[in-house]
Amino acid sequence: MKKLILLIFLTTSIFFFAQKKTTKLGVFTTIDANIGFDLGSIIRENQAQNDYEKSQLPPGKFNYGFSLLAGYQPLTWFSVSGGLRYSYIDPNFHLLYYKIQPNFYINDPETDDLVYLFANFGTKINHTAAKKAGFVGIGIGKTEPLSKRFGHQFQLSLDDQIIDGNASIFIGLSYGIILFSNKNL
């Protein structure tokens, strides 16, 4: 009888107190390439009736660029990263931003693929034709580990890019690689 009680106790303790594998990146670095399209550019160009109004439109229908970020994931549901983002919008607008990106993970902590919602905040740090520029945005992304400490990520974002008081809403896609410190993913 004692052996049966001991066996039941050990079995239940294994199921109730066993640690589950959680997915956390730890310290990570990402580099990604992105492209964005100005959603309002078609409407603004059709509404502009003369050359003066067309000259006052915000620059660029597209933006291209890349980001380099370093971050840390202290909790299974949250990480924060910061770094640089370069955006080419127009020949006179080569913008270099300092960027902060908090991520909120919405997937099951035990799965390998990390799905997250994120916010973007950035401000211009270089000298270009724009006196003052910045951006804020939201989006959704997915990180897929490919091997130990290496993976790739995809993001879909909606950014409000503000250049000298003129706002443009860009929808963007990005693809990048990620290096992380957790080798057990």
For the report, how would you describe the main beta sheet?
8 strands, antiparallel, barrel
The share of residues in helices is 10-25%
Residues in β-strands, percent = over 45%
Largest sheet, spatial ordering of strands: 1-2-3-4-5-6-7-8
Q: Could you give the count of β-strands?
A: 8
Mean pLDDT: 84
- H/E series, N to C? HEHHEEEEEEE
Structural class by SSE content: alpha+beta
Q: What value does the Rg take, in angstroms?
A: 23 Å
Question: Can you walk me through this structure?
Answer:
- With 185 residues, the chain is α+β, with helices and mostly antiparallel strands.
- The protein contains 3 helices and 8 strands; from the N terminus they run H-E-H-H-E-E-E-E-E-E-E.
- It has helices at 2-17, 41-47, 51-55, and strands spanning 27-38, 62-75, 78-90, 93-105, 114-124, 133-147, 150-163, 166-180.
- It has an 8-stranded antiparallel beta barrel with strand order 1-2-3-4-5-6-7-8.
- The model has no long low-confidence stretch (mean pLDDT 84).
